[in-house]
Amino acid sequence: MSLFATPLPTIRAATRRSVTTAALGLMMMMMTLLLAGLAQPALAAPNTTYSKDGVSFEHPAGWKVTEDSVAQDETRLRSIDLEGPDEAVVTFMFSPFLKDQNIEAFAANTAKNRAESAKNASAVAQQLRFGPVTTAPLTRKVAGQESKGVSQRFEISLQGLKLPHEARFFKANLGETTAIIMTQVADESAKAVEPGFALAIDTLRYRGTGKR
To answer: What is the pLDDT of residues 104-161, one digit of tens each?
Structure first.
C-alpha cells in the first residue's frame, strides 16, 4: 500500500445516488410519516470500542471497521478504515516513517491522486469528475490532544449530479509511531456523522505492540 493511497468510498456513493435519488426521496417521505407516529424515540445504542494490536478507539454503534492491514514493505504502514453511514470514512495510518511527513503536503498529494485513482476503478467510477480543491487550516482533538490539520473541500460530479465533499487530515505523534488520520464525507451527511468522527479521533490510543 502506498503512503499516499486514497480510499474512494465516495465513488460508490456517487454511483448509487445517481441511480436511486427519486427512490430515496420517496423512502424518506415514508419514513418521516412513520417516525412521526412513534410515541417515544428509540434510545441510542452504546458506543463500541475497537481494540487490536495496541490500537484502540471508540465509535458509534453501527459503524464498522472494514480494514486493518499492514503493508508488506519497509514502512510496515498499518491502515485501519472505519466506515460510518452514507459512505463516511475515517482512515487511521500508523508508521514511524510518517514522523517527518508534512500534513499539508500529504493532503495536497492525496487530492492530486483522487482522479487518478478513479481511472483505475470501475467503468462508472471512471466517469466521475473531481472539481477544484480549496483548503483551510483547522484544529481539533486527536488522541486527547489539540492538533492542527487541513480541511479540503471539493466536488464530485457524475452525469450532472454534483456532490460537495470534505476531507480532513491530521497528524499525531504517538510515542514509537506516528499516525495520520483522514476523514471524508459528503456535505449532505456531514452534520450527522460529525459526532462519530470526533469520538473516534479523540479516543484514539496507541500502546505499542510487537511485530504483526
So the answer is: 999 999 998 876 766 666 555 567 778 889 999 999 999 999 999 999 999 988 777 8
Strand partners, 55: 52, 206
How many other C-beta atoms lie within 10 A of the C-beta of residue 88? 23
E strand or H helix at 128: none
Q: Could you say which residues of the chain have pLDDT below 50?
A: 1-41, 212
Instruction: Look at the block and give the residue holding cell 500502546.
Output: 207
Grid coordinates standing for 89? 470514512
Q: How far apart are CA 208 and CA 200, in angstroms?
A: 18
- 106 lies in a domain? yes
Contact, 93 vs 69, CB < 8 A? no
Give the domain range for residue 42.
9-206
Q: Is residue 89 a contact partner of residue 10, using CB atoms and an 8 Å limit?
A: no
User: pTM for this one?
Assistant: 0.75
Residue at 211 is within a domain = no
In a domain, 40, yes or no: yes
